Amino acid sequence: MVEVTLPAGIYLTPCIPPNLFLSSEKARSKTAKATPPRTQTWKISAVVASSSSSSSSSSSSASVCGSFNRTVGGQVLPEREYLEKNEGKSKNKKRVFFLDVNPLCYAGSKPSLQSFGHWVSLFFSQVSLTDPVIAVFDGEKCNEQRRRLLPSYKAHRRKFYRPTTTSRKFVRSQVGRSKPLIMDVLRKCNVPVIKIEGNEADDVVATLVEQVLQRGYRVVIASPDKDFKQLISENVQIVMPLVDLDRWSFYTLKHYVAQYNCDPHSDLSLRCIMGDAVDGVPGIQHLVPGFGRKTALKLLKKHGSLENLLNAAAVRTVGRQYAQEALTKYADYLRRNYEVLALRRDVDVHLQEEWLVERDTCNDSSVLSNFFRSLEDTDKPTRESRSDFSNG
């Protein structure tokens, strides 16, 4: 079942929330070394979103020292030169934002409508502005397909709209009606909402990203979920909520290469080998303790992908004895991890032209103000009480 909620045609007096940005120079100095606590996945130099430009790409001077090369017009270019050559082309394309709603509805592991309202308010006023936004939710029974392959997959997750306590009636009521309330807020802010039964939001986004790119747009995915790193390219960026800094921050291909010194296409293969504790996917190191990140990166840089590495290991020696034995003995184990962690791009969802129009922001202020007023009986979000998002 495909559930698509289109924006309501409500028009009020335009009222845009005040700009909360620091100056770009001041922001860079504050964010140069800051990272969210206990979120090891995102060890980057934060690039603060700026409302002064429609471009989502930073002019960061971080060194890009990738050891891999790209071929452009038959000429092999170092990665840094390749990125600079393509950055200008990407900036000229219009942006389409995908809003991964589910992770924004948590403060740490606790469901929080205030967290949703806070981050969406900042997102509309500081990041997406009038660019098209498509909101995506997890569908019902979205994890069943992957859990058939790996029962531990996201086994610890709780759905946001289920009660987390039975001690207070108003909490049960609040959580029980959260999903329709959130969808209503997005719809009134002229954001289409997509939810497809049996499919995770990540897979829906990955499928629609391909369709948006084919239309000549560039894509920005708003999410703290590290799974989206496998989609990063010249025309696909991520913008993440940084809790400590209380703002959104862009993460681009330049940042990925500077952080990992490898191609983003290797990110998925690396996670298949190392595992993903957040998603409940075990890595190979608990079977072969000596097979760590350094070994995995070295082999993936040489062979390009997990499948290429496993095929090579099946016919010849690709590394030290412990690595060789691990890759041959646990090849099926690693391929299962790949099938679980790879984002699907074949979901039955089709991009609609009306999703790509400029978003009318005239309702934002009144809709969000009413939303927060409806939450006055719950605890107000504070900088001290907000904690890290879970990456998933």
Keywords summarizing the entry:
392 residues; single chain; 13% strand; two-stranded antiparallel sheet; eight-stranded mixed sheet; elongated
Q: Care to describe what's here?
A:
The structure is a single chain. This protein has helices spanning 24-31, 79-91, 101-104, 113-128, 144-149, 169-176, 178-188, 201-214, 253-260, 265-274, 293-303, 306-315, 321-329, 331-341, 364-374, and strands at 2-5, 47-48, 69-72, 75-78, 95-100, 106-107, 110-111, 133-137, 193-196, 218-222, 236-242, 247-251. It has 392 residues and is an alpha/beta fold. It has an eight-stranded mixed beta sheet, with helices on both faces. The chain has a two-stranded antiparallel sheet with strand order 3-4.
Brief sketch in words of this structure:
The chain contains 15 helices and 12 strands. With 392 residues, it is an alpha/beta fold. Strands 1-9-8-5-10-11-12-2 form an 8-stranded mixed beta sheet, with helices on both faces.
Taking the sheet with the most strands, its summary is: 8 strands, mixed
Structural class: alpha/beta
* Oligomeric nature of the chains: single chain
> How helical, in percent, are the residues?
25-40%
Number of β-strand runs: 12
